[in-house]
Amino acid sequence: MRKFKNIAIAAVVIVALGTAAYGIAQAQDAAPQGDAVSGKRIFLKEACFTCHGRVGEGGAYNGPAPILAHTALPFEGFKGQIRNPVNDMPAYSETMLSDKDIADIYAFVESLPGPGSPKDYPILNN
Ligand code: HEC
Q1: How large is the C-alpha radius of gyration of the chain?
Q2: Is the CB of 84 under 6 A from ligand 1?
Q3: What are the average pLDDT values for consecutive 10-residue runs of the chain, which has 126 residues?
Q4: Which of 45, 81, 111, 112 is the pocket-test mutation for ligand 1 (most atoms within 8 Å of CB)?
């Protein structure tokens, strides 16, 4: 009986650890699956490109509009800026841009190459 009790406790511990690990994996993988092709279309249609550049290379609006290509922002931060911009960027409410639209835009900008290194340009290495 004692042996059975130990096995039961071990089983409970294993299930608890497994559940915790699964929870962590889910949290890290929080960015919803977006469609980059649709994201590009929305990015151009909703005029994000007027400030951020057609391939997210950055631009200007009052001050600099940041580079979005290959953004380092996590999805929640990316979405937060779109819903409640920190400064001069216009806000996009849920009726203008759904969460799915934002996920698609995120997939699009993530798919773009980020800013290159000067080493990538032979003319700068003479
Ligand atoms: C009228 C110009 C303008 C438009 C249009 C615009 N933005 Fe912005 N965006 C900015 C500026 C300026 C900032 C810098 C922060 C601020 O002023 O709020 C910014 C910041 C951001 C950031 C934060 C980037 C970072 O690394 O900090 C994201 C993400 C972003 N914009 C996404 C978008 C998306 C997606 C769209 C289209 C749905 C869009 N923006 C449309 C001007 C614009």
Answers
A1: 22
A2: no
A3: 62 55 54 93 97 96 96 97 97 97 98 83 84
A4: 81
Residue nearest to atom 27 of ligand 1 (CA): 66
For residue 18, the model assigns a pLDDT of 55
Rounded CA-CA distance 31/24 in Å is 13
The first and second tokens of residue 57, run together, are: 């290379």
CA angle 6, 9, 14 (to 5 degrees): 125
Contacts of range 109-113, beta carbons closer than 8 Å, 24 or more positions apart: 109/39, 109/43, 109/56, 109/68, 109/69, 109/70, 109/71, 110/36, 110/70, 110/71, 111/36, 112/55, 112/56, 112/68, 112/69, 112/70, 113/69, 113/70
pLDDT of residue 5: 67
Closest CA to 96 of 30, 47, 33, 31: 47
Across the chain, what does the average pLDDT equal?
85
Tokens linked to 13: 């511990």
What's the pLDDT score for residue 102? 98
